[in-house]
């Protein structure tokens, strides 16, 4: 007798809910909630931490000094791309893009609360030299966090949207091109391209628009910006390569746990792409 959980109607996380047993549908939604929650929670955390502190992780390699200066907000950022890769692989492009849009709304919500917290009384006296409450005034820490968050919000929003959508697009481009094979290629290929876009955009916009980077006035600006871009991208590059094994193991285990058939899913995606091309 055929197990209904293994029937063709139940494979693929994008299968219609009515065609999937209730327990399996609930399991898939629970895993999606965990991945989306980790993505959104990490996104909110890194936006608050942002550029509140820069870490000097410079090191020497074969006698050469390698500069590595990264904002503390960069530390959890690679997790967001790992989560969207998991969601793209297990749940498809539409759900991955949905999570990206929810992430944008969450960022706007955080900024709104920061604005509201500053707008409501009491209103501490402001130091005209810094635009912040005087040292020792109640709420100065909040206003410092708000100032830095607002200073980088335009950069993070533009870079976030560009990088996340590129990540999802490139991931599925490689998935179609390799007919669902070579998981390492779409995982690393999508993340490395999107991280370069993200890092370059956020550094350039943060400096030229928000003026929020710790730039030394007596040193060449271009060199300092390149150090920030290099540092951020190197950190993300290493993190992307390191997460390949967890992504492989996680995808293999979750595919079995969620009863997914990626071969059937790839055939369905190819048929849908063919129909869309013919309709166009």
Q: What is the terminal-to-terminal distance?
A: 43 Å
Strand runs, count = 6
Sequence stretches where pLDDT stays below 50 over 5 or more residues: 1-11
Note the main sheet: 2 strands, antiparallel
Rg estimate, integer Å: 22 Å
What is the tally of helical segments? 8
Strand order of the largest sheet: 1-4
Determine the fraction of residues in helical runs and give it as a percent range. 55-70%
Assembly of the depicted chains: single chain
How many domains in all?
1
Q: Report the order of strands and helices.
A: HEEEEHHEEHHHHH
- Give the overall shape: globular
Average pLDDT number? 79
Class by SSE composition: mainly alpha
Strand proportion: 5-15%
Please, could you describe this protein's structure?
With 280 residues, this protein is mostly helical. The chain has one domain (4-275). Helices cover 68% and strands 6% of the residues. The chain contains 8 helices and 6 strands, in the order H-E-E-E-E-H-H-E-E-H-H-H-H-H. Strands 1-4 form a two-stranded antiparallel sheet. The protein has a two-stranded antiparallel ribbon with strand order 2-3. Strand 2 (59-61) and strand 3 form a beta hairpin. Helix 1 (22-49) packs across helix 3 and helix 2 (77-91) packs parallel to helix 4. The two termini are 43 Å apart. The model is unreliable at 1-11 (pLDDT under 50).
